[in-house]
Amino acid sequence: MTLHATFPDTALEPAPLLSVAGISRFYGERIGCADVSFDLWPGEVLGIVGESGSGKSTLLRCLAGIDKPDAGEVLFRGGPAPLDIYSVSEQERRRLMRTAWGIVHQNPRDGLRMDVTAGGNVGERLMDRGDRHYGAIRERALDWLQRVEIAGARIDDRPRQFSGGMQQRLQIARVLVSEPRLVFMDEPTGGLDVSVQARLLDLLRVLVRDLGLAAIIVTHDLAVARLLTDRLMVMKDGHVVEQGLTDQVLDDPHHAYTQLLTSAVLGV
Amino acid sequence: MTTMIQVENVAKSFTLHNQGGVNLPVFDEVNFEVAAGEALVLAGASGAGKSSLLRILYGNYRPTRGSIRITHAGRPVDIVSAVPRTVLDVRRRTLGFVSQFLRVIPRVSALDIVRDPLLARGATPETATEKARAMLARLNLPERLWSLAPATFSGGEQQRVNIARSFVDPSPIMLIDEPTASLDAANRDVVVALIAEARAAGSAIVGIFHDEAVREKVATRYLDITAFRKA
Ligand SMILES: Nc1ncnc2c1ncn2[C@@H]1O[C@H](COP(=O)(O)OP(=O)(O)O)[C@@H](O)[C@H]1O
Ligand SMILES: Nc1ncnc2c1ncn2[C@@H]1O[C@H](COP(=O)(O)OP(=O)(O)O)[C@@H](O)[C@H]1O
Ligand SMILES: [Mg+2]
Ligand SMILES: [Mg+2]
Predict the structure, then answer these.
(1) CB within 6 Å of ligand 2 — which residues?
(2) Exposed (0-12), middle (13-18) or buried (19+): which is A193, by Cβ within 10 Å?
(3) Fewer CB under 10 Å: which end of chain B, C or N?
(4) Where are the beta strands (DSSP E) in B73-215?
């Protein structure tokens, strides 16, 4: 059990894992997100916070390659050569999303195959990756179910027999089993009761730290951001209004909007 | 002695945008250095800005102006302009912050909280456990509490977990904000001894101490920050 981020010596890291430049997405006249740029380094966890409608999901969908922005570029350096994610072929992008990336959806039903067993949901990702040995796949699936605190005896049950919190944990196992370099999460604890949330958050915190994952986490909950993220971007009306180290932004907010957000919650 | 902290021309003011944009100046033109083995105690009335200055040294508050050079792994790093991952690396290896309150993390036991900094710096699990247990015992935390998450502990018990975590493997620089506020005399003496040991081992200390007796036992030098208030 570790609470700490492990950072390689910064001098030894030649390049960011993800370079984002000038991402904008419009819905007709309406701004989804506008001119967003940042670099993400291996092992860093970036939070995107802001009120509902501020453009967090729009931005995340662009970054994860689910939607194409109207302007901007995203360069991913997780493979042998840097990859411009909007100019690669659809096939190449899908391969990337199955292997080097993981996406945790707010609603577990969007990320799980509801008619496939828990073990199948996890094992499928390993088969996508090219694993073929049935026994080894089942063993790893079992191991991952236990890591997300799902009893091994439930391996042949289908997700619809699970509670919301369990479904979300299963989705996380499905995403992390293939050891992605970068994980995108949109309100991962959003639909859950507060008590269930705390357990999931703690699990996420430990997994992200232990695996040294880079992650981008969208949340409107500043306590979630405080617990899980190293850096924060604050969005308002599609624009990033403030960014920095998470505790800096929350404890000494400079922008009027960030001051409003932090003063609305006690003790984050 | 090696200079560990070099504060140059630091100013801090807060702009409260949602309270009519009022500007709250705290201090200006702060300059000082702290060397390894020194204990600098910040003095000044409540509200003078002692905690703000300590948080600036940690990279938690951002100064309005100025630079702060921290000697990190033998090299100077300006904590004010450093990118987030550098600040986090400096905190992990060089800067320790002992606050008045423990930030409780759900489901993590007192023992694991104290073990964590040792593991982060590469200790074996056995060594980490042994040192953590010794530190909790020294701070008189009842052993039955060690395996529990501190969420339900009293203020004084949480504070001792916090101190144990901070001093189990003292950092080259220790920033300390009123650590003894909710402790009894016996535990206060333990904290004073821990600070003295860290200093003897070469840590540079910057601290704020409410209690005058503690202050006098700890300080090798004082800095009254009221002097930096803008005229
Ligand atoms: N599919 C869509 N069609 C039209 N407008 C959209 C669509 N998705 C989002 N928007 C608009 O874009 C803005 C940002 O929305 P969104 O990215 O969902 O924000 P958030 O995730 O922060 O709540 C909002 O004004 C929203 O109404
Ligand atoms: N995050 C903050 N936002 C706004 N004002 C702050 C903040 N932190 C401290 N202050 C103000 O700065 C001044 C100095 O506070 P502080 O550094 O806590 O003083 P001390 O520790 O000497 O009592 C006070 O007026 C306080 O209200
Ligand atoms: Mg959204
Ligand atoms: Mg104070």
Answers:
(1) A 251-252; B 14, 24, 26, 44, 46-52
(2) exposed
(3) C
(4) 75-78, 95-98, 173-177, 204-208
Instruction: Label residue A92 by pLDDT band (50, 70, 90).
Output: confident
If one counts every other C-beta atom within 10 angstroms of the C-beta of residue A44, the result is 24
Which range among A148-152, A261-265, B6-10, B115-119 shows the weakest confidence by mean pLDDT? A261-265
Q: Is the ipTM of this complex over 0.90?
A: yes
Q: What pLDDT score was predicted for residue A93?
A: 84
A252: DSSP letter:
S
Regarding predicted confidence, which is higher, A189 or B143? B143
Residues B28 and B11: beta-carbon distance below 8 Å = yes
Mutate to test the pocket of ligand 2, among B16, B28, B51 (most ligand atoms within 8 A of CB): B51
Decide: B79 and B59 in contact? Cβ < 8 Å: yes
pLDDT tens sequence across B34-43: 999 999 999 9
Report the mean per-residue pLDDT for chain A. Answer: 89
B144 by Cβ neighbours in 10 Å (0-12 / 13-18 / 19+) ranks as exposed
If one counts the domains in chain B, the total is: 1
Tell me the three state secondary structure of residue B82: coil
Mean pLDDT within A53-57: 96
Residue B179 contacts residue B98 (beta carbons within 8 Å): yes
Tell me how close the Cα of B107 comes to any Cα of chain A, in angstroms. 7
Residue B62 belongs to domain spanning: 3-228
* Yes or no, beta carbons of A5 and B62 under 8 Å apart: no
Identify the residue whose C-alpha is closest to ligand 2 atom 5.
B14
Summarize the confidence of residues B2-14 as an average pLDDT: 97
For chains A and B, count residue pairs whose Cβ atoms are closer than 8 Å.
76
Distance of CA B103 to the CA centre of its chain: 14
CA distance A217 to A204: 11
Q: Which atom of ligand 2 is nearest to the CA of B54?
A: 17
- Whole-model pTM over 0.90: yes
User: Which residue type, as a one-letter code, is found at position B16?
Assistant: L
Q: What is the CATH number of the domain that holds B161?
A: 3.40.50.300
Provide φ and ψ at B105, rounded to 5°.
-105, 125
- CB contact under 8 Å between A44 and B117, yes or no, is no
Q: Is B107 exposed, middle or buried (0-12, 13-18, 19+ CB in 10 A)?
A: middle
* The pLDDT of residue A13 is above 80: no
Distance, in Å, from the CA atom of B50 to the CA atom of B55, rounded to the nearest integer, reads 9
Domain boundaries, chain A: 114-178
Region A188-209: mean pLDDT is 80
Query: For residue A32, which ligand has an atom nearest its CA?
Result: 1
Q: How far apart are CA A61 and CA A27, in angstroms?
A: 14
Using a CB-CB cut-off of 8 Å, the residues of chain B touching A198 are 106-107
